[in-house]
Each structure stands twice: as structure tokens, then as C-alpha cells.
Amino acid sequence: MPDTRKAHLDTLAISLLLACCMFWGFQQVLIKATVTEVAPVFQGFVRFAMATVAVLLWCLWRRVPLLPERQSQAARGALWSGLLAGALFAGEFACIYIGLQYTQASRLTVFLYCAPFWVALILPRFVAGEGLVGWQWLGLAGAFVGAALALGDGLWHPAVQAQPLAWLGDLLGLTAGLMWGLTTVVIRSTPVGRLPPAKQLLYQVGVSTAVLPLLSLALGERWSLDLSTFAWMSLLLQSLVGAFASYLAWMWMLAHYNATKMSSFVFLTPVFALLFGALWLGEHITPGLLAALGLVAVGIVVVNRRPRAAAA
């Protein structure tokens, strides 16, 4: 079966990616503002539980078949690879939530957003045509340097020295980035990638809904749904816009566009997080942040630039 994915990102893909990254950056600030009322892992559980219901309703409305065909080897392959993608997705968020107990969010975010490097390194081993040429690697590196520069103040903040287990949080952040990258690789290189995007997402949010409450209980978090209007609005936004609409759009784009080039856009998310933090929390926008925005923008343009032969 020929690969019908587009080799380059068009206007629709770029618009969707920018919208997703902008909301994901906003969502980090939203989670931070909500954590005083709702424990982090429990917050993630409620988020994915609500998203699971939304995805199920979407599948019913769109008549997406939920049960695999019997005696079908392809269906069995999709089931196991879907569960693997779901387990990696849940593991990513488990590492994020646990890691934030030991290190600063800015440090963990830098390691988390190494995910495109894992995709670029691993995916070409399984899928032809996903590799980058030399100048595109420079663009990817430039985008990462921009994200790291934007978060530089957090990396060298004196408070980091007061956390003796910061290295553990950093390692968990790097592991979360690896799991994110591996989730993309599994979706692009196994039978689950041939399922409808909504069903791919259902595996991920469904497995997370099953795993995260166990983790929350193990951490001794307090469970309560007696929340303020703000907390409920935050959970609804995280669930319906974040875990449902934006992830469904991401799954759809993975089925139609080059995953390596898509992944370069995720470097915008921490930059958007700092921008929303400045607007909402009153944090200062420094010259370093403006330089970071320039590096990220240039990096994305370089990664997605068409080769001369292809553009002719």
C-alpha cells in the first residue's frame, strides 16, 4: 500500500500545528494555575477520563468501528500496537508528573521537548522518506537551541541547586521525551497507524485513564470534585480542547504529513508557555526570549524548506 502522506507541510497543516502548540503552551500555564486546587496526577486522570468519553462519542457519531474484526491478523496487530502506543503515552505523562516533584518545570520541559530528536533518529529506521538532510538537521538544532534559550533563566536559577534530586527529575523528563517520540514512531510504523485518527487517540487516552488513577493513589494524592468554577473550566479546557480536539488534530496530521517535520513545531510550545506566563503571571519578556522566538521560527522554516529538485 503506497504512502499517501504529503512530504511537505501545507497551509492547513501549519495553521493546525501553530494552533495546537499555542494551546499546549497555554495549557501548561493553566495546569500550573489549577494545581493548587487539583493534585497534578489526579488532574491528568480527570482530563483523560473526560477526553475518553468525548472520543467515544465522536467515534459513535462518525461511525468509527471500535471492535476489531475477528480472526484478522491486521486487526490483532493494530490492537497490540495500539495498546503499546497507549502505554507509552501514559508513561510519558507519568514521567512528567513524577519528575516535576524533583526538578523545575523549565528544566523538565527542555528534556521533554527533545522528542523530535528521538523521532528523527529512530523513525527513518522504520519508515523510508522520513529522514532529514544535513541543513534540515541544522534547522532542527536551531529550533532546539531557541527553546533552550527561552527557558535558560529557569535552567540556571539558584533554586536548582537546592534540589539534590534534580538529576532524577531531569532523567524522567528525558524519558518522557523518549516515550513521546516512541509513541510517534509506533503510530507511524505499525498497524495502529492505519486506524482512523480517533481510534488511535482512543487507545492513548483510554490507557491513560486506566493507569493514571493507580499512580495518583500510589502517590497519596487527595481526590475531590468539590472545585471552584475556575478549576472546572480549566479541566474542561484541558479535556475537550487539549486532550480531545488538539490531540485528534495531531493524530489526523500524523496520518497525512511527514512526522519528522511536524515534530519540529513542538519547539514552539515552551516558547508559547513563557509568553502566556508573561501575560497571565506577569513574567518579564527578556531579549533572550525574543532571540529564542527568532531561532525557533528560522529552524522551522529550514526544516520545512523544499529541496531544489522537489520544488522545481
UniProtKB/TrEMBL annotation:
Membrane topology: Multi-pass membrane protein
The keyword Isomerase belongs to this UniProt entry's keyword annotation: no
GO cellular component, as recorded: membrane
Residue span, EamA domain: 12-150, 168-304
Location(s), subcellular: Membrane
Chief place where the protein resides: membrane
TM spans (from-to): 12-30, 42-61, 82-102, 108-127, 134-151, 171-189, 201-219, 231-253, 265-282, 288-304
UniProt keyword list: Membrane, Transmembrane, Transmembrane helix
Top-level taxon: Bacteria
Entry-linked InterPro entries: AA-Vitamin_Transporters, EamA_dom, EmrE-like
Keyword flag Repressor: no
Pfam families for the chain: EamA (PF00892)
Position of the signal peptide: none
Entry similarity comment: Belongs to the EamA transporter family.
Cross-referenced PANTHER family: EAMA DOMAIN-CONTAINING PROTEIN, INNER MEMBRANE TRANSPORTER
Protein name: DMT family transporter
The organism of origin for this protein: Simplicispira hankyongi
